[in-house]
Amino acid sequence: MVLFHLALFLLLMKPNDSVGAPGVFIFGDSLADSAEMLGLPYAPPFSDPSTSGQQTLQGVNYASAAAGILDETGKQYMGPTPFNKQIEHFQQTVSRIYTMFGQNSTAVYEYLSRIVIIVSIGSNDYLNNYLRPDIYSTSSQYTPLAFSNLLVQQIAQQLVTLYNMGARRFVVYSLGPIGCTPNQLVGQSCAERVNQMVVLFNSALRSLIIDLNLHLPGARLSYVDVYGILTDILINPSTYGFSVTGQGCCGVENGRAQWNCIAGATPCNNRNSYIFWDSLHPTEAVSRVVAQRSFLGPPSDIYPLNIQQLASM
């Protein structure tokens, strides 16, 4: 039985030998992206019944809209799954993997050490927590610096928990320039106060990734500078083929930015010309740029290794 499970593991890995990662597991919020360039099938959501089968080995998506690093973030919506709960779901997946491998700890360890963990979370801890004083008290309890430290201390524990479960390869995305989303614009200008908060978080997150690489044996964590990539797109939109920068393709009504797409409205026809899909989320065209620069980019985009390098080690 053990030999059968080990053969199954090797068979599943074979089609992706050129990339090196047998599976991709995604954590985060509605900004999380499935890493198609790894050559793997789209990871099904954890809630999908099929994730209990053998295709689990090729990846699972645990991301949840409105989710945050903090458990209470997004509580005003219908039950987002915070990062801590997503990690609990991953533990359930790992237990299933042990069963599939006939409880062969060596084979499971080898498998988990080669998967890629994608983490894209934190925006909602600002948009749906710190910047909502009508619902949350965090902005009166913490300075922006203290709040960023709180978030990074928490995500540090969460990443170490995943490491302790066997994960070794991580791609952690920074926050983008939230103050430049249509939802946060002040007239035609970015909300610099909000962007300054994000910069504090991103700086602490990058330092954390460097520190974890130094202190977690065998771990390989990469930090993606989404803030820098998106800022470049916003400053030089025509270079990337974009012409509409401050308005969502489906999220504006009577000149007012909407949080989500407008019910019953027809989205713009030239969506590839838009940077934003609605008032917060980028279009697929923008996500493609971020994905390409994450996969193949230089250290200024993703540090210290890009996804291709990380997956093929």
TrEMBL record:
User: Cellular location of this protein?
Assistant: Secreted
The answer to whether keyword Hydrolase applies is yes
Q: Name one GO cellular component term.
A: extracellular region
Query: According to its UniProt record, what is one Pfam family this protein matches?
Result: Lipase_GDSL
| Record GO terms (molecular function) | hydrolase activity, acting on ester bonds
Domain of life of the organism encoding this protein: Eukaryota
One record GO biological process: lipid catabolic process
Its signal peptide is 1-20
Q: Which UniProt keywords apply?
A: Hydrolase, Lipid degradation, Lipid metabolism, Secreted, Signal
Q: Which family, according to UniProt?
A: Belongs to the 'GDSL' lipolytic enzyme family.
What protein am I looking at? GDSL esterase/lipase
Q: Which species does the entry assign this protein to?
A: Tetracentron sinense
